[in-house]
Design a protein that fits this description.
six-stranded antiparallel β-sheet, Chorismate lyase, alpha+beta
């Protein structure tokens, strides 16, 4: 009985390893098109929401990236690398106004979805919000929700395209027997956050990660 149990455990481990090693995205033309379509869909979801956090939680739930679609923040740094004059101009503050900074990873379950930098004006937040941001792992969007914020995105940048330059002219782009190599960073958003009284209180630089595409593709052609 013990030998049977050990054999079963070995078989399950082998199958799990095979599933883990199997390419989630085949390097085919259809696979590349699907990856591009999902990237664009994710970007539009974020652009269409007042909060990147809520958009990511919805994405996580829709694509079943975790049992509980809850986004958490892991603070990487609170040491401001320097807020330039242009950033202060966008936030409508002068050089004497204190700013605070957070660089965080936003994850849902085991999936890293975004790495975000955030400069914010603490005087435009409540003391409770400032304390939460200083000590907790709650994403910025959730903390400031009582301000009824909205976003104005001022820069979009695609960092990777599944269809490289020249694909439309017939350049070879796929290896149907291989796996599509997806880099860590997919696209960037830069946005200002405003309160319901139309006062800017934060600027965010968000770099969205390949785990947005962690769900298996619909087709495997």
């Amino acid at each position: 009985m013990r030998r049977l149990f050990l054999a079963a455990c070995t078989l399950l481990a082998t199958l799990a390893s095979a599933r883990a090693d199997a390419p989630a995205w085949p390097d085919s033309f259809v696979g590349r098109l699907e990856a591009l379509a999902l990237m664009q869909e994710a970007s539009l979801e974020i652009l269409g929401d007042t909060s990147a956090t809520s958009a990511l939680e919805r994405w996580c739930g829709t694509h079943r990236l975790a049992d509980e679609p809850r986004v958490v923040a892991r603070v990487l740094s609170s040491e401001d690398p320097g807020a330039g004059a242009e950033l202060r101009r966008r936030l409508e503050v002068d050089a004497s106004e204190p700013l605070r900074y957070r660089r965080v990873e936003l994850s849902c379950g085991e999936h890293l979805l975004s790495v975000a930098e955030n400069w914010y004006v603490p005087a435009r937040l409540t003391p409770e919000m400032n304390e939460q941001l200083r000590t907790g792992d709650t994403p910025f969007g959730k903390v400031v929700r009582p301000l009824e914020p909205y976003r104005r995105t001022f820069e979009l940048r695609q960092l990777w395209s599944p269809l490289p330059e020249g694909w439309e002219r017939g350049a070879p782009i796929a290896d149907p027997d291989g796996a599509l190599e997806i880099p860590a960073a997919l696209f960037e958003h830069r946005a200002l956050l405003y309160s319901k009284s139309h006062l800017p209180f934060a600027e965010v630089h968000e770099t969205y990660q390949r785990d947005l595409l962690a769900a298996p593709p619909a087709h495997r052609h």
